[in-house]
Structures are given as C-alpha cells and as structure tokens.
Design a protein that fits this description.
The protein is mainly alpha-helical. Helices cover 49% and strands 8% of the residues. It has a two-stranded antiparallel sheet with strand order 1-2.
Length: 99
C-alpha cells in the first residue's frame, strides 16, 4: 500500500444491485468483462482478486446514475498492517535499530 489507501467494493451492495442477474448479464449491463467482475468479487485473500479500478468504478456509476460512489465503494486506508508489509531488509534494519 502506498499510503493513499485502496478503493474497495461494498460486496453486499454490489450483490443487491446485481439482483437475480447472472454475472454475464450484470457485467454486460455495466460494460465490463465477466472476468473483471469475477475478480473484483473474489475475497482479498484470493491471489486472483483485483480491487476496482477507475474504469470499473466509472462504468458502474454510469450504468446506475442515481447511485453515488459511497453507495458501492469505500476507501480502505487502514494502515495497521503496514508494519508487517515491510520488506525483510527494512524489517531487519528496524530490529537492529531497536537493539
């Protein structure tokens, strides 16, 4: 994470918006590839997961003009896990500095 946070999808809101449409129908309605929708809906822990990009966000909001960004997306700016994301070299330097 680069300190700016990441945009995440409110999956419950996206599923509600999709209703009883298949992924293929819903992706066609919003104008994205079915594989894009699939990857965005995967859990963060799945290596195939993608966070929504600008194009996905714009297409969803264009397909549903009555919705606001906040209805479907949020900014994940939680930095608590950052200490564990440091490369090994930086982590070892930090330990040496603490000694």
């Amino acid at each position: 994470m680069d300190g700016r946070g990441r945009v995440k999808v409110k999956l419950d809101a996206l599923r509600k918006l999709q209703g009883n449409m298949s992924d293929a129908e819903f992706s066609r309605k919003i104008g994205v590839a079915p594989s894009t929708l699939f990857r965005i809906k995967l859990p963060d822990t799945d290596e195939r997961h993608n966070d929504p990009g600008e194009v996905f966000i714009a297409k969803v909001l264009n397909a549903y003009p009555d919705l606001k960004f906040e209805d479907l997306f949020f900014l994940d700016s939680d930095l608590r896990g950052r200490k564990n994301e440091l490369p090994d070299r930086k982590r070892s330097l930090r330990r040496k500095a603490e000694i």
